Amino acid sequence: MDSHFRTDVGALRNILLRCADERRPVLAVVSVLGTTEEGAVDQIHRLVELQAEMRRRGLEFYHHCDAAWGGYTRTLFYAGKGKPVGTPSAIREITQTWPSDEVFQSFSAIHRADSITIDPHKLGYERTGVVLSFGPGACARTCARGNHPENPHPAARHKYLLLRG
Length: 165
Ligand SMILES: Cc1ncc(COP(=O)(O)O)c(C=O)c1O
Description:
The chain is about 30% helix and about 20% strand. By secondary structure, the chain is of the alpha/beta class. The chain has one domain. The strands form two sheets. It has a five-stranded mixed β-sheet. Strands 3-4 form a two-stranded antiparallel ribbon. It is globular and about 50 Å long. Bound molecules: pyridoxal-5'-phosphate. Pyridoxal-5'-phosphate (PLP) binds next to loops.
């Protein structure tokens, strides 16, 4: 963990390099988009790059993003009619200081995780439920269902599953 309560990407890289060296399999890396206690946002953009680097080195693992708390805030990243907001300053016009440039980059990269969870019963103000979203790569790799149809809209690149508790 770094001094901002986020995954220390450099430290994680060293661990993964060691695993690759020792040929030890890694099942998954789980990132968090808004931790319960600190509201810390992992650097998702760096983690997806790290996953790609490790894949090139022969170490394959699954990347799940726990966006149970933060996921709904992603709705602020659309200006309307599904048009993505290009810069964090457009959001700061509403929220004043949030998101920082780096948090903006993290949120903008969540569709590159293999799967995401979002809790409607947190910032969605729903009574209950959880949304599980699987990216096309994850489906191809883990479910052997073939390729997801290509769609330029990031959200549409995932398969959604709404579970009601
Ligand atoms: C970041 C995060 N992930 C997962 C959970 C689990 O949520 P639940 O058991 O309410 O679906 C929580 C709950 O606080 C959370 O904050």
